[in-house]
Amino acid sequence: MSTAPVVVADDSAVERRLDDTRPASWWHLPVTTTVLGLVALAFFGLRGIPGVESAFVLARESDLNPFGIVPETITLPSKGGAVALSLLALAVSAALWVLQARSARPPARLRITLIVVFAIAWILAFMTWVISQRTLDVTTLLQGTIVLAVPLAFGALSGVLSERAGVINIAIEGQLLFGAFGATLIGSLAGNVWVGLVAAPLMALVMGALLALFAVGYHVQQIIVGVVLNVLAIGVTSFFFGTVMRDNPSQFNAAMRLPTLRIPLLADLPVIGKVLFDQNVLVYLMWIIVAGLTVALFRTRWGLRVRAVGEHPKAADTVGIAVNLTRWKNVLLGSAVAGLGGATLTIGTGVAFGEEMSAGKGYIALAAMILGRYHPVGALLAALTFAFADSLQLRLGTMTAAEGGVSIPGDFLLMLPYIVALFAVAGVVGRVRVPAADGQPYIKQ
Q1: Which of 41, 86, 179, 291 could make a disulfide contact with 200, Cβ separation 3.0–4.6 Å?
Q2: What is the structure's pLDDT at 38?
């Protein structure tokens, strides 16, 4: 149950009342998990290949693994393992039915824990089924997840910074593209990958300045501005790519890569060593920015002012906060962060710039921001979820040509990350609380 404030028109005392009304949509979550659990049992379990095994490689001989604490390989019976995991998912779904039915306001932590356990069981059931008769290297899968998550996480953080201050940021796609473009072009001209890293957020500031100018300065409809800026970014970068970079790639479009910064001992740990401690500087910056932004938004005076501007700009103005200036600063800061994500697409992975190479990642980052409830940590977790789906489809794509086992059409695998994003956002968007003044221009009276 929750307490609901009562608004009165006079000076009478305010009475606090307990609201135990059950939401009309309380059954949506358990129904969804039940259906997904039954699908897992029917397709991954009962229709699995009998008499074969699925192998997951966790550790290697070169890892720092005293006494073999982490087994090198875990082998499961493909059909039996998938059935057991599917039944576990259905058991968690039953627990969600009980929790949702018995309490109008179930404890959030317990509810989230059950959802996480269900998701892990369902994903493991799918993986056990799909890699029948094959071997999956978990470390390689997670390494790919981190690499693919970095641009999504930086893009989602850009959205958090902008929208917490009340500015809708649809232009993340253009900011990523400009960051990738600037990192390669300026880095190639300077012959130094670190110069390219510095240039990426500065180039993305162009998109941020245009967004702030029209959305905050001229009060243009913010969604339209964001879409137009994305189209502008595609047009500008495609023009320079076709007229300058493609004709002289050694000078204007060299493939450069940031060096890997390996942390001794920690990088030798099984499973997580190479995933967390054997990466380039952009990955480490991602962790630092997420932690710093979380503290700054929710534990500092600056963060309180930003959130006040995004929730009630008129009240913020009355206490002396410069609303539009705060929005300008946050949009520019968010654009610079997105530029770092764009740098990951080129100098972070060692490839040259290509036309429209952001390939919709800005929109996936926007979905990650919404799924993460406009919170830096939530945005990061959502980005990792989408990146895991993308990394999994890449790994499964290399397995489909192998003899035996389960073969999934390549077109479906390509859709997998977007299907996950669609279902994830569709499942929670109705319950996400958007900053109250998000998308509303502020005109000082």
Answers
A1: 179
A2: 96
The reply to whether the predicted model has a pTM over 0.85 is yes
pLDDT at 15: 58
Quote the DSSP letter at residue 434: -
Which letter, b or e, does each residue of 84-101 get, where b requires 16 or more Cβ atoms within 10 Å of its Cβ? bbbbbbbebbebbbebbe
Which of 381, 353, 350, 383 has its CA nearest to residue 367?
383
> Using N-to-C axis directions, what is the helix angle for 138-164 and 323-345, rounded to 10°?
160
Residues of the chain with pLDDT under 50: 1-5, 7-8
Tens digit of each residue's pLDDT (9 = 90 or more) over 264-293: 989 999 989 999 999 999 999 999 999 999
* Alpha-carbon gap, residue 167 to 324, rounded angstroms: 10
Pairing status of strand 73-77 against strand 53-57: antiparallel
| Cα–Cα separations (whole angstroms), residue 20 to 4, 112, 428 | 10, 20, 21
Tokens found for residue 246: 């493609």
Give the model's pLDDT for residue 2. 46
Judged on CB neighbours under 10 Å (0-12, 13-18, 19+), 327 is buried
Q: Count the neighbouring beta carbons within 10 Å of the beta carbon of residue 357.
A: 19
Q: Where are the domains of the chain?
A: 23-133, 139-431
pLDDT score of 431: 65
Query: Domain 139-431: which CATH class?
Result: mainly alpha
pLDDT of residue 292: 97
Closest CA to 356 of 208, 248, 233: 233
β-bridge partners, 262: 278
- Distance (Å, whole) CA 406 – CA 135: 13
Contact 302, 93 (CB under 8 A): no
Q: Structure tokens of 69?
A: 């604490």
How many C-alpha atoms does 283 have within 13 Å on its Cβ side?
23
Contact 335, 208 (CB under 8 A): yes
Specify the pLDDT at position 395.
87
What residues have CB less than 8 Å from 29, skipping those under 6 apart? Answer: 96, 100, 115, 427
Return the closest-CA partner of residue 372 out of 294, 288, 272, 284. Answer: 294
The two tokens of residue 81 are 């393992």
Residue 136 bridge partners (DSSP): 56
Q: What is the pLDDT of residues 14-28, one digit of tens each?
A: 555 555 566 777 888
Quote the CA–CA distance of 173 and 146 in Å, as a whole number.
Answer: 19
Looking at residue 397, what is its pLDDT? 80
